[in-house]
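User: My advisor, Dr. K., asked me to get a structural model of this assembly before our group meeting. I'm new to this, so sorry if the format is off. These are the inputs:
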Amino acid sequence: MEFVYNLEHVSKTYKNDGKEFEALKDINLSVKEGEIFGIIGMSGAGKSTLVRTLNRLEEVTSGTVEFYGQDLAKLNAKDLRNVRHSISMIFQGFNLLQQRTVIENVEQPLRIAGKSKKERKEIARQMLKVVGLEEKENVFPARLSGGQRQRVAIARALAADPKVLLCDEATSALDPKMTGEILELLKKINEERKLTIVIITHEMAVVEKICDRVAIIDDGYLAEVGEVKQLFSDPQSAAAKKLVFPANPFDPSDPEGRLIRIVFDGLKASEPFIANLVETTGQKVNILSANTKSVGGIGYGQMVLELPREKKDQEIVVDFFRKNGLAISEVR
Amino acid sequence: MSDYIVEAIQKGILETLEMTFFSALIAYLIGLPLGVILYATSKGRLLENTAVNGVLGTIVNVLRSLPFLILLVLLIPFTRLVTGSSIGTVASIVPLTVGAIPIVARMVESSLYEVQPGIIEAATAMGASPLYIIVHFILPEATPSLLQGAAINIATVLGYSAMAGVIGGGGLGAIALQYGYYRYQKDVLWTTVALLVVMVMLIQGSGTLLAKKNRKA
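Assistant: The format is fine. Below is the predicted structure of the whole assembly, which you can bring to the meeting.
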């Protein structure tokens, strides 16, 4: 397995009016060839800065960003421009030329690469077909919907025949339906063209839907990195827990009561284990929050439960869940 | 109005158009690249260069702060050097051009600032060079705004051309001054004023129309 990116001790400090701001702090991570790698974090966590170090739109203050083993910081201006031909990027605001037609937009990277007019048109048409917009080649972007504009941007990104596609909040300006369509398109491109994709987002739904691995950025630090499935069933860091488990909407009936969180995955999500608990042990629990989601086709769920008051009864409930193979963590 | 005045006005219209056209043309040939340089070398832009931006910015500001009438007088020796004369239509083109260049440059600069930073970021990410980005991304995106600015600039040059009449330039301004002001011929004065107003409106109107037709968003 080859690494597309290898980041070691990447830090970025901005200096503004004598004040220093650390956007990235000692980030270490690798992106594997062919995977969809998510980078998630709250706004202001530093993820946008991080993705911009991947094509050197941002210079790192210290550490190295290696693209296929090549340290990006060591490239001169001309070599950097050449490397950028194989790193495409799409944006939240699409960033299409408003004064140019759809096909002229898609041709841009090919023009930059010095391709002939005939070749440009041919490739651009192919790419528009990939994103399903071959009918719109002579339309101006202003006449397209947000989802269609992002498709044009994807076609433009693919035209350069890149080795990796960087997506900076590519679906954040779109409604849920369009978001779904764009994510499906990205997944299809990833599978059919074996294109490595790096996705920056603040939406957990995006990560759930298409990412293979994910890095969680919190306040400039890399809080956690790993398989998406692993993250959902067993988040380690506080930042990951916050993203995976939403805040409790209800207060427990007993302010001093013991709260636990059970997390279940795969087949267990289809078992009526609360009913089973009542039937076999006679113990009752209070459900404070519950939700399920599908990650890569597998159901994941979590519940926050308030346990009975008696210590003895609490142990019976916990034992029951443990025996049934559910992951338990103490909330309070 | 007597026949010779009507004839003078007809000639004046042509002279005014001639002065305006050539002054604006030359001013754009110099002012457009100057505006691009001012934009590209400013802080945080593609070719940030404080020294170049500082020097050019200062020259532009000084020229722009001089009242045009003063500039006309100051430039007389330079005009004579370039055209061999300091009076007449051709001689008026020199100070008009010099006066228009800084206005054009600043107008171009401000049009370019309107281009979304995201477009430049996208172009940079594609591996385009700064020059390529300016020619193929920034200028096309700014075209409607540049056309709108051009209409304003040409109308300004037309207004200035009337002032050239004071130091012996031709055109409607000279007629208004000679017949209307020195000889108290109010009808001539008002006719020339009306003609100038119509010309400015035509320029502004066609510029706005052209910009609108070009604006795709």
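One thing worth pointing out at the meeting: The domain at 245-330 of chain A is CATH 3.30.70.260 (Alpha-Beta Plaits).

User: Perfect, thanks a lot.
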